[in-house]
Design a protein that fits this description.
By secondary structure, the chain is α/β, with parallel strands linked by helices. It has helices at residues 13-25, 58-65, 81-89, 103-110, 129-136, 156-164, 174-186, 203-211, 225-234, and strands at residues 6-9, 29-32, 36-40, 52-55, 75-78, 117-123, 140-151, 168-171, 197-200, 217-218. It contains 9 helices and 10 strands.
Amino acid sequence: MQSSFKVILTREEEDIKRDKRLFEAEGFRVVELPLIKTVSLPAELPTQDYDYVVFQSQKAVKYFLERWKISPKAKVIAVGEKTAELLRKLGYEVFKVPEKQSVEGLIETFKNLPKGGVLIPKSKIGKRELLDFLQRSGFKVYELDLYTTEPIIYPKEEFIAKLGEGDFILFYSPSAVSAFFANLQKHKVALKDISLRFVAVGETTKVTLTSEGVKEVLTPEKPSTEAVIKLLKSLA
């Protein structure tokens, strides 16, 4: 029965609170282990006009719109339906949502768009594949580092105890994966001694886990909590 499954959630605390209700409604038991926290950074909006603005997460939307409005001339591109839904809720028209909800999907989208200026509100530690592609392809790129993600390091006893409470551990971002392994390294705990099944939400997160030596990584069909729940229920 899926109700016997215990799921460790590793996102930020506010995200865990939201996801916890969804898991518990389906009968899962939730272990809260936030491994990352977001820190806002000072930033200045470029004075140049931009033709596109790309939001790769709801967090990027939040930190941008807390300070500025989106130029009415810009076409809004959102990675993922959740991000697009938030933008629409806030009154903005979304020009495109890539079918593949990833950097690869964004690259495919821009291959078919006219050249212009692209504003990218993002995390300071975000990957650069999209930016590099756009610059090579003749787009003018405006990076806007609005926030960064810092790891949370736990006391050894608390960390080990939390891991012992779960059957599955979920990761939504490479930064949470990095924080997990930072805790393992600090407390001298070997990966082979962790009796958990790993779930990655998103291909980049999966790649990060496998690069750290995790041999089996479960991945839902779509990068969403609802898809994770569907996946875990199928294993019951």
